[in-house]
Write a structure and sequence with these properties.
With 450 residues, the protein is α+β, with helices and mostly antiparallel strands. The protein has 2 domains: 328 residues, Beta-lactamase (3-Layer(aba) Sandwich), CATH 3.40.710.10; 81 residues. The chain contains 11 helices and 19 strands. It has an 8-stranded antiparallel beta sheet with strand order 12-13-14-15-16-17-18-19, with no helix packed on it. A 7-stranded antiparallel beta sheet has the order 2-1-11-10-9-8-7, with helices on both faces. The longest helix is centred in the first third of the chain and has 18 residues. The model has no long low-confidence stretch (mean pLDDT 93). This is Serine hydrolase. InterPro entries: AmpC-like, Beta-lactam-related, Beta-lactam/transpept-like, DUF7586. GO terms for molecular function: hydrolase activity. Keywords: Hydrolase.
Length: 450
C-alpha cells in the first residue's frame, strides 16, 4: 500500500545512520529516501535542508548516465541502431569511430576517463563546444574491449548519438521519453527552485567554499542533471520493477547484467549497460553513484529484497556515500525482510510431461514449471549448470542466465508424440541416466560392477 511506512525502529536506525554520516562527513546537508513495492516508504534529511527534504534539489552527477543509457537502449529496441554498431556509423565525425555502442555503454571501449583541457566539471561547457572537443587528439587509453575503464567522454558521445537519431537536444529527448512518463518533474538541467547550494568543505577546518555549477555542454549526458530524492525514488522504482512506457522489462534486465569485468582492486564491482553492479553483504545490488563539485549522490536497489535507496548531499568530498546507501539497504532488508507473494497454482498443466527429473549423462537435473510456461533447470546433486528459461512462440525455450544464457531448449518427440528427450544447446537430457538417443551411443552391455 502506498501509505505503508517502515517500522519505527527501522526509521530510527536509518536516521541514526544518516545523521552519523552527516556529522562524520561534515556535509552541510544530506537527504535520503527508501522505496519499496513501487512506493516511497521513508524520507529524511539532516542539516540545512529546510522543511522539504524530499523536494530539495541536488546535482546527481553520474547517475545521469543511467538515463542516457536508457535513451540509447530505447533506440536499439526501436531498430534504429545495434549495440554492435561502431559509433562512427552514426556519428561520422567522431573518433575513434570504431568503438561499439555497447563498449561505450559498458566503459569497455578504452577511452580516456576525462575530456581534455581544464577540469570539465568546474568549467563551462563552451570550452568544449562539440563532440570532437570532448575526446581530443589522443582519446584512447586502452585497447578496446580488453578491460573496464570508466569514461565520461564516452557518455558525451552517447548523448550526441541520441541527439543525432532523435533530431532534438538530449535533454528534450530525456524529458519526452523518461521524465514526463515517470512524473519526474523536478529532474533536469536546471536546478529546482528549492535546491541546496554546492559546497567544498575545508579538509582541516569547519569552513565552506562555494562550488560552481556550470552547464557542461556536450558533456551534459555524462553528469549534469539536477534532481530530488522524491524524483530519484521514482527512478529507483523503475530500476526495480521497470515500466513498459519507458523500457521493456527484458531490456532493463539486459542493462543489469555485468558486461565489463571488475577491476582487481574491487572484485565485487562490475558494470552492465549503464548500470553499476555490486555484491555487498551477500546481496546483488544495481544502481549508480554520482559526484560533481559540490555534490555527491548514490542510488542502489536490491531486487531480491525489493528495496531501493537514494542518498544525496551537497559537499564535494568527505562522505562515503556509496557505503552509506548500501548500509541503508541492509538496515531495511535485515529489519524488515521482504514478505513473499502468496503461492498460487499458475503452471501450465500441459507441461507436466516435461516436469521433474532428467539426466545429462549420469548427472541428475530437474525441470520445474514456473509462472505459466516459464521453466527452471536446477541440479539435484553436486555442481550443475542451472538456468531459468523463457518460453518462445515456436515452442522452444531460451536460457536466461548462467552457462545456458541464450541457448535453446527443444522438446524432442517420437512419431507417436511421446517425449524422448530434451535438447538444450546440443546437450541431451534423458529421463534415466544414459537412456535414449545419447550422443556417442551407449555400451550394449549396459551398467555393470566392473
Amino acid at each position: 500500500m502506498a501509505d505503508e511506512q517502515l517500522l519505527p525502529d527501522t526509521r530510527r536506525a536509518l536516521r541514526h545512520r544518516l545523521a552519523t554520516a552527516q556529522v562524520e562527513g561534515r556535509a552541510p546537508a544530506i537527504v535520503a529516501g527508501v522505496v519499496r513495492g513501487g512506493d516511497p516508504r521513508w524520507f529524511d534529511g539532516i542539516g540545512d535542508v529546510g522543511d522539504d527534504a524530499p523536494g530539495t534539489g541536488f546535482r546527481i552527477g553520474s547517475i545521469t548516465k543511467t538515463f542516457t543509457a536508457v535513451l540509447v537502449l530505447r533506440l536499439r529496441d526501436e531498430g534504429r541502431l545495434d549495440l554492435g554498431d561502431p559509433i562512427g556509423r552514426h556519428l561520422p565525425d567522431t573518433r575513434p569511430g570504431d568503438l561499439t555502442i555497447a563498449q561505450l555503454l559498458a566503459h569497455s571501449g578504452g577511452l580516456v576517463a576525462e575530456p581534455p583541457g581544464a577540469w570539465w566539471e568546474r568549467t563551462p561547457g563552451t570550452l568544449r563546444p562539440d563532440l570532437p572537443s570532448i575526446v581530443g587528439d589522443d582519446p584512447v587509453a586502452h585497447p578496446a574491449g580488453r578491460r573496464f575503464h570508466y569514461s565520461n567522454p564516452g557518455y558525451g558521445l552517447l548523448g550526441g548519438l541520441v541527439e543525432r537519431l532523435r533530431k532534438k537536444p538530449w535533454h528534450e529527448a530525456l524529458r519526452d521519453e523518461i521524465l514526463d512518463p515517470l512524473s519526474m518533474r523536478d529532474t533536469g538541467l536546471a536546478p529546482p527552485e528549492n535546491h541546496a547550494p554546492g559546497w567544498a568543505v575545508h579538509p582541516w577546518a569547519d569552513a565552506l567554499l562555494p562550488e560552481p555549477a556550470h552547464d557542461y555542454g556536450p558533456m551534459n549526458p555524462a553528469g549534469a542533471l539536477w534532481s530530488t530524492v522524491a524524483d530519484q525514488c521514482r527512478w529507483a522504482s523503475f530500476l526495480l520493477d521497470g515500466d513498459d512506457r519507458v523500457l521493456e522489462k527484458e531490456t532493463l534486465a539486459e542493462m543489469r547484467r555485468p558486461t565489463a569485468p571488475p577491476e582487481s582492486f574491487d572484485p565485487a564491482a562490475g558494470y552492465g549497460l549503464g548500470l553499476q553492479v555490486s555484491r555487498q553483504d551477500g546481496r546483488d545490488l544495481i544502481g549508480h553513484g554520482g559526484s560533481v563539485p559540490g555534490y555527491l549522490a548514490s542510488l542502489w536497489v536490491s531486487r531480491a529484497d525489493d528495496v531501493g535507496v537514494v542518498v544525496m548531499c551537497n559537499t564535494t568530498a568527505g562522505v562515503a556515500i556509496s557505503g552509506l546507501a548500501t548500509d541503508l539497504v541492509r538496515i531495511v532488508a535485515d529489519r524488515e525482510p521482504r514478505i513473499p507473494a502468496p503461492w498460487r497454482a499458475v503452471s501450465d498443466p500441459d507441461l507436466l510431461e516435461i516436469a521433474g527429473p532428467w539426466y545429462w549423462g549420469p548427472a541428475p537435473l530437474a525441470i520445474r514449471v514456473r509462472d505459466g510456461r516459464n521453466l527452471e533447470l536446477t541440479g539435484l546433486g553436486g555442481r550443475a549448470r542451472a538456468t531459468a528459461l523463457r518460453p518462445e512462440a515456436d515452442g522452444t525455450w531460451t536460457g536466461l542466465d548462467g552457462y545456458y544464457a541464450g541457448e535453446r531448449l527443444r522438446v524432442v518427440r517420437a512419431d507417436d508424440g511421446t517425449v524422448t528427450h530434451l535438447d538444450l544447446g546440443t546437450f541431451v537430457l534423458t529421463r534415466a541416466p544414459y537412456e535414449g538417443p545419447v550422443p556417442g551411443g551407449v555400451d550394449p552391455d549396459g551398467w555393470r560392477q566392473r
